[in-house]
Recover the amino acids of this structure.
């Protein structure tokens, strides 16, 4: 009787082992399929979590901000207005006399840059809900793109460009106030040209992997194609989630 009982116990143990052997891979596959798609396995994602959107006002910066903000992994908040002013003040510290004084005080560049970077990052983080990719849209912030790239070496930049005639017409029609006094049509065109070329020059220096120029007219006419390229540049190089991004915005994986 004992021999028979031991035999059946052994058969049951073997059967249980076989069931476990067959079910374990199935459980793993089910867990992978049910895993939340917005969670990515990349320990370095915080280093690439900032995206700055800019360009001349009325060039489509709000449009691209909204299109990015609908992505579940991107949070693109409203304008802070403060960041361009902070960058302007930081630029004033780049003069020879100011720099010499700050170097003697052991504040430049490490302490100054770290303080400005922490302040700007805090503004972006507190402008809305947390997200893997934090986006800031301040049109004139890209005028100081070189400084921003020094503060955030791994940040991405999106430069919106629109036909200057349409920009000026929109500014005048909407009564957008960009200065203390109202500019004439010619003054608006001159200012648009100067700011746009200044941003484009800095964007060319940083290169296409860091800064991407998006034309408003092309974005409106071919939104799907342009969003593929934008998300490929901004997101694919940040996270290991090509499949999720492809499903969401029809992006190609090897962008």
């Amino acid at each position: 009787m004992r021999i028979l009982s031991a035999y059946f116990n052994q058969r049951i143990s073997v059967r249980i082992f076989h069931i476990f052997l067959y079910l374990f891979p199935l459980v793993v596959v089910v867990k992978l399929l049910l895993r939340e798609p917005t969670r990515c396995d990349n320990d370095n994602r915080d280093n690439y979590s900032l995206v700055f959107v800019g360009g001349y006002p009325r060039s489509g910066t709000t449009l691209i901000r909204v299109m990015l903000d609908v992505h579940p992994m991107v949070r693109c908040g409203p304008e802070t207005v403060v960041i361009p002013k902070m960058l302007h003040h930081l630029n004033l510290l780049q003069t020879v006399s100011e720099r010499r004084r700050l170097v003697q005080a052991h504040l430049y560049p490490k302490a100054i840059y770290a303080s400005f970077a922490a302040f700007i990052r805090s503004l972006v983080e507190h402008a809305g809900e947390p997200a893997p990719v934090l986006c800031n849209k301040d049109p004139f912030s890209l005028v100081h793109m070189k400084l921003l790239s020094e503060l955030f070496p791994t940040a991405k930049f999106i430069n919106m460009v629109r036909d200057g005639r349409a920009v000026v017409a929109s500014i005048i029609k909407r009564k957008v106030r960009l200065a203390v006094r109202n500019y004439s049509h010619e003054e608006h065109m001159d200012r648009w040209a100067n700011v746009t070329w200044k941003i484009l020059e800095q964007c060319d220096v940083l290169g296409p992997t860091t800064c991407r120029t998006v034309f408003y007219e092309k974005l409106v006419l071919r939104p799907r194609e342009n969003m593929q390229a934008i998300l490929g540049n901004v997101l694919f190089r940040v996270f290991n989630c090509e499949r999720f991004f492809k499903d969401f915005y029809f992006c190609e994986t090897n962008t």
Remarks:
- The chain has eleven helices and five strands.
